[in-house]
Amino acid sequence: MTSNSVPTLRGHPLWGSLMDFNRDSLSLIESAARCGDLVRIRFGPMQGYFVNHPDAVCKVLAARSKSFRKPAVVKRALSDILGENIFTSNGAAWKRSRQALQPAFHLRHVERYTQVMIESIEREMRDWRAGQVVDLEAAMIRVTMNIIVKTMFDADLGSHADELTGVFTRLFHLAYKRMAFYALLPNWLPTRANREVKRLAAELRALLRSYIAEWRAGRAGEAALLNLALAPADGRPSMSDEQLINEAITIIGAGYETTAYTLVFTWLALMQNPPVADRVYAEVAESIGTRALTLADLPKLNYAERVVKEALRLYPSAWGLSRSTLEPVDIAGATLPRNSMVLVSPWTLGRDARWFPDPLRFDPDRHMPALAASIPHYAYIPFGGGGRTCLGIRFALMEAVIVIASIAQRFRLTPTPESATGPKSVAFTLRPNGPLRVNLWPLSDHAGASPEADPRPAASAINTSVLSLCPVHRVR
Q1: Which residue from 122, 137, 423, 459 has the fewest beta carbons nearer than 10 Å?
Q2: Averaged over 152-181, what is the pLDDT?
């Protein structure tokens, strides 16, 4: 099959599906998933292909990964924010970054951060009281930002966490707007948006430069991530300060935002599925009770970890992964031309009934070892796959379980009437489709212990395996 015979989403004669994608990315990729496992999508001047079968995804991310690179549009959109680093680079430059940073995320090091994670959520809950309403989204963002900065630099943000997350949020929003229109305007052009990016990036880099100066001066603790990954060898720094800043922006940006929204959607799922929540509360009560959580308790929280994994299946923080072909590549029976954009979506893969029966049912037991072994490896990729698999998998899972267990020791959560019911795609990550404000109930309060399930739907169902459901495709 040639690339021209691949099913193609109908779009505007000039910009194809670009506007639809920018307006509602999730709906667009769900439409593509209904059309088949390989679907052509035009994004303005760019020829794109949506890949939605685990075998084909494996080729893109792993088996033929040397035939792909991060798309040039990503680099153009982020170059004056991130510079050259593990997220934007390809080839030898990417390999150097990966090899330098990977040791710090080994499990034996990640376990050192347990106390930081516990202290951060305890600090956030210090003023929580039963009967209060809490902005859970804002709280989870503060917690995860404090954790990643403390573990990286041994620095305390304290009350400045909201300020720093505001800078990151705005920068990534502006970067995504650039990508939405394929970064057609050069970053040096003095538009209002480009001037704002320049100002915010300078503020962020100045802050990180001060943290790195403290680290260089030996004032960071031995367990700081930078000490574990980038300690000077033979007296020579392994990276320049500017390269460290480039890497730190990505690690912090990804480290706080994706975990924060994993926690947000995990709690959303628990509130919509009271029997699952009851099992979490029972496990926490039996394993920990009211005493302080410790590292030794984490192996006992197996169900809580499965809950997080199931939330990541239905609500993957990074809902889309993109690559560009370096050469013609055979995928799903067709040859994709050189310089083709390829889009893979953990969102549609995780909601495909072929791999996950009754896919919209929130069932943490799917991730029990015996059942998980039957799931095709590249059908469940909330952390990506292949060589670019997220370095912080264990870090993120440990952090999420600690935060959930710490809250579950003290409070039952129920949504307020105006609270979010599901996700929407915003910039690079999923966000709730409204504010996530929750009521805090005491654990002893029977009324709060077994709340009714939220009757509002969490998401629309999709079936990604029936071609006849494709509403907007043509073959040419």
Answers
A1: 122
A2: 83
